[in-house]
Every structure is written in C-alpha cells, then in structure tokens.
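Suppose a colleague, Dr. K., hands you the sequence of a protein chain of 331 amino acids and asks what its three-dimensional shape might be. Before reaching for any lab equipment, you can write down a predicted structure in token form. Begin with the sequence itself:
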Amino acid sequence: MAAAFEFTCGYNDSGGIVATMVFTGALEPRKALMLAAFFEFIGALFLGTAVAETFTQGIVKVVDLDILVVWSALTSALSWNILAGYRGIPSSSTHAIIGGLMGAVLISIGHEAVIWIKIIEVFLILILSPILGVVFGFSLTKLTNKLFGSFSPKSVRSIFLKSQIVSSAALSLSHGTNDAQKTMGIITLALIILHSQYPETMSPFYDGGAGFSVPFWVKMVCASAISLGVLTGGARIMKTLGGGIYKVRSVHGFSAQTSSAGIIYLSAILGFPVSTTQVVSSSIVGAGTAERANAVRWNVVRNIIATWLITVPSTIIIGGVIYLILDAVRG
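The predicted structure, expressed as tokens, is then:
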C-alpha cells in the first residue's frame, strides 16, 4: 500500500517537475521523464531522512498506535491521489497523507495522540512555501530578464533551454528526497508499531534499535516506487502546469524550477515536508506574473488553490471513516 501511494506521488508530481521543460521544448516528454526519474531515485536514496523522522516521531505519538492507523492513512491518501491524478488537478500528497494520518489517529485514540505543536509548524511551512514560490519565481524571472535583456530572443531561448535541463535535475533531486521520505516515515512508523508487538517476527525487517533509522530496504522501495511513478508520467497535470496557467517560455521554466528546487531541498534538510505541487505551481505563477500578470489564467490558479484547501479536511474525514470500517471488520 505504501509503495502504491509513493508511486502515485511520483506519477502526479512528474507533471509539475517536467512540465515547463516539455512545453518549452527543452526535452521531449520521454527523455524529460527519464531524466527526472533518475535524479528522483538518487535524491530519495542518498539525500537524508529528516522528513521521514518528522512523519515517524514528530506528528503523532507512537505509543499505543494501532497498525490500522497506518492502513487508514495510506488508503485515504492513495484514494485522494488517484482522484486528483484522474481529474488532472495538481493536488498535494503531503496534505493528503498528513490528513489521513490525523483522521485515523483522532478516531482511534483521540487528540492527545497528535503532537499539535509540530502539526502547527508543519502547516505553517506548508502555507509559507508556496508564498516563497511566488516570490522567488517572480524575483528570479525579473533578475534574468534584466541580466539577459540585451540578448537576442533566440540567444536567450537557447541559453535557458539548456539551463532548464540542469534546473529540472535539481528539482528532481529535491523532490525525490522530500516526497519519498514521507512514505519512508510511514513505513518505518508501521515497523515500529509491529516490532513493539512482535519483536521476533519483525527483527529481520526492523531491528528496533536505539535512535531513529530508516532501513535501507525501505529507502530502496520508496526510491524505486517514486521513480517508476515519475517515469510513467502524469500527462494531465503536465498539461495544466505547462500551459494551463499561462504560455510558459524557457526563462519562466528555469526560474520556476530553480526556485522550487531551492525551497523544497531546504525544507527537506530542516525536516519539514512540503507540497512539491504547491511550490512548483506557485513558482510558475510567480514567474508568469513577473512577465505580465494578466497573462496568467487566474481561474486555473483558483481551482488549484481550492483543491489544496479541501485536501486536509477531506482526507481527515476519509482517514477516520476508513479506520472505523477496518476496525469493524477486524471485530
């Protein structure tokens, strides 16, 4: 279930990662997705586990947690990702998994099992990150226009088409480490719960030693799942972010990808999960606004924001309902 969820994270977010590169002509879709999938795998496998630790130990109290909580959270988030991907709406898998986990915990144990101060911190970062995306996307586009204003349009396009390949690789690295770690944390949470109940049975999979650690096999599973998801590609979301908001040019793509990569990787280092979809979408909006605000299709932006706002409350409800159903079936 966790691998399936991580696959959908890669599938849905791949559109945002390569959209601008594809629509500006920097790379054709298949090559763009292969490039992104490779760097996603590297980022997921080698660039830390601070976000995973937040999901395992920072959001909820592990003591007395039921394994059905993990099942409910994953089922809720996976269902939401599939719906968003089918509809072609850039949705946040981070919001979805946090909401599903909170809903299941609130129903199974109660509010005392939620670490509210950390939840508040996480949501403040989730709110701040798209704002930074707009600001950085806007500022970087203005800066590049100023620096390259004397160049011919053909030269500018050539420079930034090549630069987009580098910025897309950087974005894929940052996305891989941030988004794969959410699922690493959820799997490790499940291992901790099960190890406390069945230590001998679980010892080949998780040693339960002192301190926080993500088993290497968990990293491999998550890195592989997100890479396969990216490689498969979310064409509908790619269309929304590549041309649905406004007509993206190479300078916009470079600015949006570079801004997004910096924000996402910094958040990963600090252990805060962020929504790649939010950051990329807002960076694209910032880059487009720097060029001409009335070129942005604000009705598309409003639809994306509306989806972000309803994701957490919806998945909280879904996670809680799924827990009740699973608990009733278990008897």
